[in-house]
Write a structure and sequence with these properties.
Helix content is about 35%, strand content about 10%. The protein is α/β, with parallel strands linked by helices. It folds into 2 domains: about 10-20 and about 110-225, Rossmann fold; about 25-105, no CATH class. Strands 5-4-1-6-7 form a 5-stranded parallel beta sheet, sandwiched between helices. Strands 2-3 form a two-stranded antiparallel sheet. It is globular and about 55 Å long.
């Protein structure tokens, strides 16, 4: 347990707070690589495959390489990069990549992990501000509104709105300023040691949560906070 009092918490979005879980009817007519209709579980696996912290799509194609490198800074490049990345996973029929990309950026397809509402409410009850810091190129705010937890978020710091991506220290500095907390008294929670762990360079605390299915980590956020004296 940390000896420092945590006065503000920063959270990553995809794979940390929310998981991609569309309804069956959202995937009607979309098939996997074997020609079977894609299930919500299959869609979740596909999204995890393309956004996983360790995922890297090497390519000699300059256009795709540029789009992938800058995907979280520009919505146009985000679309180009992820449509191609979805094709390359081999988890779905290639012609459905664009449809699946549209589902991926539709916030109605995202659900909070089981412990998010109680964690957010507990932090709010202790007057601890929350910032959501995400490498992303679409607006995730509606997902929080739909889940009924937007009132707990002090600030959203999204890479495409600020022109900087994690692990660049500037994106964390923006979030810290927005919530009015010094780095030494802040905690970053995320599923990427490289990207989210960039907070350590500022002197922040960091907790890593596993990038797994929601059912496999029902208390991961609660546990991450407890490691630093937050309950």
């Amino acid at each position: 347990m940390s000896g420092v009092t945590i006065r503000g918490v920063l959270f990553d979005f995809a794979g940390t707070l929310f998981s991609a879980e569309p309804r069956f009817d959202d995937l009607a007519g979309v098939t996997d690589a074997d020609g079977n209709e894609l299930t919500p579980e299959g869609f979740g696996e596909l999204v995890r495959a393309v956004i996983a912290p360790t995922t890297h799509f090497a390519s000699d194609e300059e256009e795709f390489a540029h789009a992938w490198q800058n995907r979280d800074l520009d919505p146009v490049l985000h679309r180009k990069a992820f449509v191609e990345a979805i094709r390359r996973t081999g988890l779905t029929a290639g012609e459905h990549a664009t449809v699946l990309y549209e589902r991926m950026i539709d916030t109605a397809s995202w659900r909070p992990f089981p412990d998010v509402p109680e964690v957010f409410a507990a932090l709010a009850a202790q007057d601890i501000p929350i910032a959501v810091v995400s490498n992303i190129a679409f607006d995730i705010r509606p997902a929080f509104t739909a889940a009924g937890i937007d009132q707990y978020v002090t600030e959203y710091v999204l890479s495409y709105e600020h022109g900087v991506v994690k692990p660049d220290r500037r994106i964390f500095e923006i979030a810290l300023k927005a919530i009015g907390v010094d780095a030494e008294e802040a905690l970053m929670v995320g599923d990427s040691r490289r990207a989210d762990g960039g907070a350590l360079a500022l002197g922040m605390k960091f907790s890593l949560v596993p990038a797994t299915r929601p059912a496999e980590r029902p208390t991961a956020l609660r546990d991450a906070l407890a490691e630093h004296g937050l309950h």
